[in-house]
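Encode chain A's predicted structure.
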Amino acid sequence: MTPRNIFLRKNTRFSIAGATLALPLALAGCTSATTSAPETTPATAPAATSQHVHGIYVDQVSSKVLLATHEGLYDATSKTPVKVSTDTIDLMGFTPTADPEVFYGSGHPGPGSALPNPVGLIRSTDAGKTWERLSRQGKSDFHALSATDHGLVAFDGKLSTSADGITWEKSSASFSPAVLAGNPATSVVLATTQQGLQRSINSGKTWGAVPDAPLMQFVAFAPSPEKAPTDAVGIAPDGSVHISTDAGLTWTPTGRVESEVQALTALAGDSCKPAIWVSTATGVQSSSDGGATFGPATP
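Encoded structure for chain A:
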């Protein structure tokens, strides 16, 4: 397969109506172990709608599947994907938190939205139905955005961190990340760049290159309900999948995604192998064997 142009991100489209998901994958770990949303009728995605997908999220408790798209946030758990947000926002940046009701986002307002362009950092406290302004309105479009145990890490042309989503501190890092991957349970953050994988152990304040790591375009931690994640999944520009069991320090190849990847998420799965979901140019695919094989995530 011809290698893809690295970091030519999320420009292909697929029908969101074809992104219905079945979630038979077990999500257990390897060891035993405030604004109210208005009452509205959710809009379903018409069959002809095609979307840029900027992010994919699977709740580790409820198995709810969300797609952050060019036209807003969609719940793709059931057969017919349903638009979640009452406002149309191009969610270029999207990240969950430890609270399944709280998300952060960034990007551009859509038709009918009263948000400024760019929207800066916005937050939802009702699982994506409504969004409130926090900071950087009219100034920042955070294309890369992630949460850690100390706040947020974001990139709008400059890498920055924030403990509260309001006050931002610029990082001394000079690289441009395609993807930032953190987790609310840990201070480790991974960043994919054209020069190679970068890693932070202090929630994005300082960074260092990961020696011998494969060149990857997408990366995500695979959290479990029991502990802070040490498993991570990475996907290279050619679609090859790599797994790390030590929070991104070393990587092992496992398989390949045969369609152009737009977004990646993962959870702890059976037999110490992460469960993986990818949004691709042809729809959503999933793997229950740590990326060795993928198949359409259809009922």
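Confidence is low (pLDDT under 50) at residues 1-6, 9-50.
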